[in-house]
Automatic annotation (TrEMBL), chain A:
GO cellular component: chromatin; Fanconi anaemia nuclear complex; nucleoplasm
InterPro entries: FANCF, FANCF_C_sf
Keyword terms, alphabetized: DNA damage, DNA repair, Nucleus
Natural source organism: Macaca mulatta (Rhesus macaque)
Main localization category: nucleus
Function per UniProt: DNA repair protein that may operate in a postreplication repair or a cell cycle checkpoint function. May be implicated in interstrand DNA cross-link repair and in the maintenance of normal chromosome stability.
Matches recorded under Pfam families: FANCF (PF11107)
This protein's name: Fanconi anemia group F protein
Top-level division of the source organism's lineage: Eukaryota
GO biological process: DNA damage response; interstrand cross-link repair
Compartments in which it is found: Nucleus
From TrEMBL, chain B:
Protein name from the UniProt record: Fanconi anemia group C protein homolog
Subunit record text: Belongs to the multisubunit FA complex composed of FANCA, FANCB, FANCC, FANCE, FANCF, FANCG, FANCL/PHF9 and FANCM. This complex may also include HSP70.
Cellular compartments per GO CC: Fanconi anaemia nuclear complex
GO biological process, one term: interstrand cross-link repair
Length: 374, 537
């Protein structure tokens, strides 16, 4: 067991080095050995994929490594990321070496020979490295062709395939990080927030929060774990959002109203904070008598239309959320003086607008203008 | 060898030009052209590889100075990269052959910096084939930030994209009037084209299925014919597995595919050495045609092709046997179909009288022994009526009825058995049936003659069945068989059939069975003869 773990360590180092200029010193023998190690670990992955204790030990070792390297979010992962990666460590290594122009002539030649030996007898047992690489190339072209010839961005972000894939990856990573250490996810997310393009990140978080909960598949060890329960990952996200008010504010600002409504319906813990934010935004607006509209004082204040939009969307949500929103609005209106006349309290005006909007909607739909539920 | 190399040089020029025009295959025309040439280009690549692997890098460049450009252009064309040569006998995906060709360019021991640079360049191209093709910068940054490499998430991404496209197609199919989310014909055509090199990639199956099944609302066909052809080839070579509904849609939308499937079946039947019924049944069920034929339009095309085959071969017994097996499989499949969605019989057999169709379609085994004679007489009556009544306006006259009759070999069997088992005078109706079965185009006189002949044979056989010992020779003489007459003449076939039946049913017949079979078979020992066939192989 100990030798296995050492092997793991050494291979992780190897993988890390394969990206650097250090490979200049590699000769054909080194290349061959590196590939052999990779093959060995792939074999280990196949054999012990279902074996609980060994797998756990290996994973723990890998997680320790991350922690020592400063954890994820620091940059592209130098070594192996998780147990799954063992299954295609040889591909990872091969690709890194191929990308690395610092490789010497002899080493390069040997590498290419090893990777692409030419037509030959296929291994009945497992897929050869050449097969794996060819398959990757094919998969890549498939993705490329579909992306440029068929794909169209889905306006419902949670159904967009690019968004969904990123969300699935995020949830998977969060789950792993959570297993490694309890506080891991929050720190990890904070680091990502600092490093990654924030707009995209926020969208991915929203989509991740909307992924359907899948039933956990017990023994699907050897397969890519991209479909494990998103439950834990979602929890971590919610927890992090609640703990980081500026992130949450950006989240609520950047994302469209409909999406936020879906997210808050799904995760009720977020609704009080969301409502609180909306109330804050609302209070920053004042009524301009000349123009007859509510305006903000500073440029970054949320304008009336957007505020109205969000409340309207929330009022179309299913019961628990919808009722909470209305109650909140009524409370605010009461606190402001419970006016019925427009122009005095933004909450009155919002409620009026929402009611008339609902009324008009009922008219359009041909429903009787009876007691509106708003 | 020299001729080969000249050919190669010519081809080289041709493909160099093509690749330059195709570039990255981003327009409709270049994509279409690429799809049409994929298989041939792969052949060329293979030939190149065979040539290149014998040479070293310097020689290669002397021979083909622009080889690096050719290969690079090929690598930048995603259609070529995605293709796998499943149509070829030694399938190796295009990517692999391209990669091998590139590997040949590497200098084992570079003498100067130019050669070194070349090596570097090859490495770069290899790397590009395998890992680049990154599109969205944001997605790339995100995945990298999480610590994922393309190999980790490409399969998942492909799956998501395929499922999303498939569901968009389905929605488009169902909500035709919601013009906002409608899929434009160009986009559909584009998608179908993109699928051509990817047909055998299992991840793409849901998309292929959706493209076939969701036909949108345009009056004319939008999907590219190359797409249909590629799917059909993949189905015939068993390189793709699609649900039956998708296969039916394919054949309904693209007639040449259905025809090709039938021809493929015929080829298999012809090329396989000696076919016993079980193997025929296997081939037929394998072809998916019986299940597909539950759709009347497909049934009619299949039927038409069987008829052509029959007419071309002048009613060859092999074809008849195939048709009978097919019909049996078809009826089995029809039985399994959802009762509510079943079509009326008339749609399958529009030119025959319903009463005749009804009678013939019952399973002969369902008829109780006591009612055989009655049923057979009834059939004979109906057929005779249909055949002799030319003025009814039924298409094709006697042949039409014959086509229907021969489909169901069980009845002919029953007639033979009835005639041989009953000691009574053979009824004319039954004799007529047999004569008609084997020779539908006979005139009245000819048929009457045959009936007389058969009656005589039957008489002899019945007499022999009462004798204690039987010999094959006696049987043959009694049947009036001699070596001069053409063994394939209809009357001879008929008599042979009766002989074989006799041997099966007569007490003591099985002792001489082998001898009889040897004697009467026009091909020699038919060791794979199995009872219940209507004609010997």
């Amino acid at each position: 067991m100990e030798s296995l773990l050492q092997h793991l360590d050494r291979f992780s180092e190897l993988l890390a080095v394969s990206r650097t200029a250090h490979v200049r010193t590699w000769d054909p023998v080194t290349v061959r050995r590196a590939l052999q190690w990779a093959r060995y670990l792939r074999h280990i992955h196949r054999r012990f994929g279902r074996h609980g204790p060994i797998r756990t030990a290996l994973e723990r070792r890998l997680h320790n490594q991350w922690r020592q390297e400063g954890g994820f979010g620091r940059g592209p992962v130098p070594g192996l990321a998780n147990f799954q990666a063992l299954g295609h460590g040889d591909v990872l290594l091969s690709l890194r070496l191929l990308e690395n122009q610092a490789l010497g002539d002899a080493a390069r030649h040997h590498l290419v020979q090893q990777l692409f030996p030419g037509p030959g007898v296929p291994d009945a047992d497992e897929e050869t490295l050449q097969e794996s690489l060819a398959r990757l190339a094919r998969c890549g072209s498939a993705v490329h062709m579909l992306r440029f010839n068929g794909y169209r961005k889905n306006l419902n972000l949670q159904e967009d395939s690019l968004m969904k894939t990123q969300a699935e990856l995020l949830l998977e990573r969060l789950q792993e990080v959570g297993k490694a250490e309890a506080e891991g996810p929050s720190r990890f997310l904070s680091r990502l927030w600092e490093r990654l393009p924030q707009n995209n990140f926020l969208k991915v978080i929203a989509v991740a929060l909307l992924q359907p909960p899948l039933s956990p598949r017990p023994q699907e060890e050897s397969e890519p774990s991209i479909h494990k329960t998103p439950g834990e990952g979602s929890q971590a996200l919610v927890h992090w959002l609640l703990g980081n008010s500026e992130v949450f504010a950006a989240f609520c600002r950047a994302l469209p109203a409909g999406l936020l409504t879906l997210v808050t319906s799904r995760h009720p813990a977020l609704s009080p904070v969301y409502l609180g934010l909306l109330t804050d935004w609302g209070q920053r607006l004042h009524y301009d008598l000349q123009k007859g509209i509510w305006v903000g004082t500073e440029s970054q204040d949320v304008p009336w239309e957007e505020l109205h939009n969000r409340f309207q969307s929330l009022c179309q949500a299913p019961p628990p959320l919808k009722d909470k929103v209305l109650t909140a609005l009524e409370t605010c209106k009461a606190q402001d003086g419970d006016f019925e006349v427009p122009g005095l309290s933004i909450w009155t005006d919002l409620l009026l607008a929402l009611r008339s909007g609902a009324f008009r909607k009922r008219q359009v739909l041909g429903l009787s203008p009876g007691l509106s539920s708003v | 060898m020299a001729q080969d190399s000249v050919d190669l040089s010519c081809d080289y020029q041709f493909w160099m030009q093509k690749l330059s025009v195709w570039d990255q295959a981003s327009t409709l025309e270049t994509q279409q052209d690429t799809c049409v040439h994929l298989a041939r280009f792969q052949e060329f690549l293979r030939k190149m590889y065979e040539a290149l692997k014998e040479m070293d890098s310097n020689t290669i460049f002397e021979r083909f100075p622009t080889i690096d450009q050719l290969l690079a252009k090929a690598c930048w064309n995603p259609f070529i990269l995605a293709y796998d040569g499943f149509l070829h006998c030694c399938p190796d995906e295009s990517q692999k052959i391209l990669i091998w060709c590139l590997c040949c360019l590497i200098n084992k021991e570079p003498q100067n910096s130019r050669q070194s640079k070349l090596n570097s360049w090859v490495q770069g191209v290899l790397s590009h084939i395998l890992s680049a093709l990154r599109f969205d910068k944001e997605v790339a940054l995100f995945t990298q930030g999480l610590g994922y490499a393309p190999i980790d998430y490409y399969p998942g991404l492909l799956k998501n994209m395929v499922l999303s496209l498939a569901s968009e197609l389905r929605e488009n199919h169902l909500n035709g009037f919601n013009t906002q989310r409608r899929m434009t014909p160009e986009r559909l055509a584009s998608l179908s084209r993109v699928c051509v090199p990817l047909i055998t990639l299992p991840d793409v199956d849901p998309l292929v299925e959706a493209l076939l099944v969701c036909h949108g609302h345009e009056p004319q066909e939008i999907l590219q014919p190359e797409f249909f052809e590629a799917v059909n080839e993949a189905i015939l070579l068993k390189k793709i597995s699609l649900p039956m509904s998708a296969v039916v849609c394919l054949w309904l939308r693209h007639l040449p595919s259905l025809e090709k499937a039938m021809l493929h079946l015929f080829e298999k039947l012809i090329s396989s050495e000696r076919n016993c019924l079980r193997r025929i049944e296997c081939f037929i069920k394998d072809s998916l045609l019986p299940q597909a034929a539950c759709h009347p339009a497909i049934f009619r095309v299949v039927d038409e092709m069987f008829r052509c085959a029959l007419l071309e071969t002048d009613g060859a017994p092999e074809i008849i046997a195939t048709i009978q097996v097919f019909t049996q499989c078809f009826l089995e499949a029809l039985e399994k179909e959802n009762k509510q969605l079943r079509f009326a019989l008339k749609t399958y057999f529009p030119y025959t009288s319903p009463s005749l169709a009804m009678v013939l379609l019952q399973d002969p085994q369902d008829v109780p022994r006591g009612r055989w004679l009655q049923t057979l007489k009834h059939i004979s009556e109906l057929l005779r009526e249909a055949v002799e009544d030319q003025t009814h306006g039924s298409r094709g006259g006697p042949l039409e009825s014959w086509f229907l009759f021969i489909r169901f070999g069980g009845w002919a069997e029953m007639v033979a058995e009835q005639l041989l088992r009953s000691a009574a005078e053979p009824p004319a109706a039954l004799l007529w049936l047999l004569a008609f079965y084997y020779s539908p185009r006979d005139g009245r006189q000819q048929r009457a003659q045959t009936m007389v002949q058969v009656k005589a044979v039957l008489g002899h056989l019945l007499a022999m069945s009462r004798s204690s010992s039987l010999s094959a020779w006696d049987l043959q003489t009694a049947a009036g068989q001699d070596t001069d007459t053409d063994p394939r003449a209809p009357a001879q076939q008929l008599i042979r059939h009766l002989l074989l039946h006799f041997v099966l049913w007569a007490p003591g017949g099985h002792t001489i069975a082998r001898d009889v079979v040897t004697l009467v078979s026009p091909w020699g020992p038919a060791s794979e003869y199995s009872p219940g066939m209507s004609s010997p192989w």
